[in-house]
Amino acid sequence: MAKRTTPMNLSFIMIFMIVLCASNMFVCRGEWEPSWSSKAAEKAEAVAAIPCSGHGRAYLDGLILKGHDEPVCECHQCYSGSDCSKFSSDCAANAGSGDPYFLEPFWMRHAASSAILVSGWHRMGYTYSDGSYISELLVKYIKNVHSIVGNAITEGKYIIFGSGSTQLLNAAVYALSPNSSDSPAKVVATAPYYPVYRTQTEFFNSRDYSYEGDTSLWKNKTDSNSIFIEFVTSPNNPDGKLTRGILEGPNVKSIYDRAYYWPHFTAIPSPADDDLMVFTISKLTGHAGSRLGWAIIKDKAVYQKMLTYLDMNTMGVSREAQLRALKLLDVVVEGDGKQLFQFAYSTMRDRWTRLKQIISKSKRFSLQKLSPQYCTFFKRQRDPSPAYAWVKCERQQDKNCYEILEAAGINGREGSLYSADNRYVRLSLIRSQDDFDILINKLKNLVAKE
Q1: Which fold has domain 26-91?
Q2: Are 309 and 174 in contact (CB under 8 A)?
Q3: Which of these, 63, 65, 55, lies nearest to 85 by C-alpha position?
Q4: Helix or strand or coil: residue 409?
Q5: Tens digit of pLDDT for each residue in 216-227?
Q6: Is 171 exposed, middle or buried (0-12, 13-18, 19+ CB in 10 A)?
Q7: pLDDT digit string (tens) for 170-202?
Q8: What is the CATH number of domain 338-448?
């Protein structure tokens, strides 16, 4: 016989339902409604909806002018006005910086799935519950992304986070150097190379290591008692070529900067399995401002030394940066994990194709030579899609290519910054579509004058 519901039991059930419906997460009538987060969400969407004529962006943390209640539009290069609608044709093309705005349209299309709202009391302590500064869930997501892409082996290795790859580069130099001022490690790289390797090493001015120039100076001299630390960038910045270390011997340690080893910028011939590899979210998702990078390390002792460096330096990466990275990578691995990479590759391939078409008509300028290559991620032959154009001025009298392009309204970066000849200039292809279109028009005009 079924037990009859008493008035007391009925009253208890009704009180329980009222309490449930009055909680922070309203679930009455099968619906969920936000409470404390609603105003923050409304404000975020309102600011994101400010159009800025499609040539700029408004941000929650942007400047608010007196008498206004909304942040101002921050305009793209060559655009101005309160709504970024005024274009200046006399403005120079910004092809110098490596801000990866080319991925912005992808994230705007995935606004809902990539958005995140953080409570005011989110992880206020210094560490996670396990006492570390590293989100174990984010580590799992990073390993999953590498597994999907097939660009790095993570099994049996250690992963550590840094404030972008920049912090990790010096942490790696520190970890690989001997604790001896009598025989400091020699830090080297092969030109053309990313200038931070030299400038950062010289800036910290450590007794345990020193910058010693190009690897070509030491190719047959690694049998000395000195430790050599070779920076290897693959794909290389600035020319986009896949490279390997040059120095050999028991005293040679390598730091592989794999920032651009993603299907956006290069074919993935095989997963990298180097002893120490550095990646960054800025060139994966485009979020350079989040300042999050990671190193994949084979040797436990090296991992421990890098961990000590980072603990003493910054006590880890901000919890908010790790949370945002987690949300972004959750979008990256959605479905078959190819949406971001297909968008990024097609964008960069098309930009490279347009650039090549213009430079091919010139006898004054040339580009680096890159060939189609089989990619294990796309499972087919793919055309080149480098992050940067490495432009050379071919005329004998054009000894400073940067000045030649600058006079034509194109701002790039001098070859000497990369320890190369000033007949070379690096042009960034990863900025916004506005930036790229302006660059293309300036180059067309320059080539047409030959």
Answers
A1: Laminin (2.10.25)
A2: yes
A3: 55
A4: coil
A5: 999 877 667 889
A6: buried
A7: 999 999 999 877 889 999 999 999 999 999 999
A8: 3.90.1150.10
